[in-house]
Amino acid sequence: VIYVTDIYGVPLLLNKLLADSFATAYPVLMPDLFYGDAVPVSSPEGPALNLTAWRARHPPADIDAIMAATIKYAKEELGAKRIGALGYCFGGKYVPRFLASGKGIDVGFIAHPSSLEVGEIEGIAGAISIAAGELDGAFNATARRIAEDVLQKKNATYQSTVYSGAPHGFAVRPDLTVQRQKFAKEAAFLQALSWFDGFL
Fold this sequence. Notes:
InterPro entries: AB_hydrolase_fold, Dienelactn_hydro. It comes from Amniculicola lignicola CBS 123094. Residues 1-198 form the Dienelactone hydrolase domain. GO terms for molecular function: hydrolase activity. Keywords: Hydrolase. With 200 residues, the chain is α/β, with parallel strands linked by helices. The protein has one domain (2-199): Alpha/Beta hydrolase fold, catalytic domain (Rossmann fold, 3-Layer(aba) Sandwich). It is 38% helix and 13% strand. The chain has a five-stranded parallel β-sheet with strand order 1-2-3-4-5, sandwiched between helices. Helix 4 links the parallel strand 2 and strand 3 (107-111). The N and C termini lie close together (9 Å).
């Protein structure tokens, strides 16, 4: 299973802990998508966080190359026969890109994806599970409806779950003092595990 991180990348302790949790069930690879240039953990997500310059340093072509290299490593060096992938926020765009036919990922799970485009959803060939937050502005009700409509039209194998009271980032960085967010994080983890158990 490839863990495709949010903008905070490998340095974020919560990403490492979540990857470790999945590693109790499946071997997990978590590539450094940003060559050591992840958004600092001290920068909280929100209107004040300007990602324009940072995104320009990490265009899709660069992330695609890292994804392709990771898939190649899993197959050729580790002998993986089938590959699942988890994508959170930023990473939620890249799992669908590599769920396209012949791209190397067989089964995917994404939570509160950002910058996910309709064409990327249309290209999905493998089974996909989506965990969405009711309060997520990046993957809002309209975006969820479009994604589901595309997947239904394709007769895709998919699951789409919306968690009430859950903001963007809930599956990795919830406010654990808020019960609905705490539940959403834990349930999204189990959602991903059961999806891989069923289809990977």
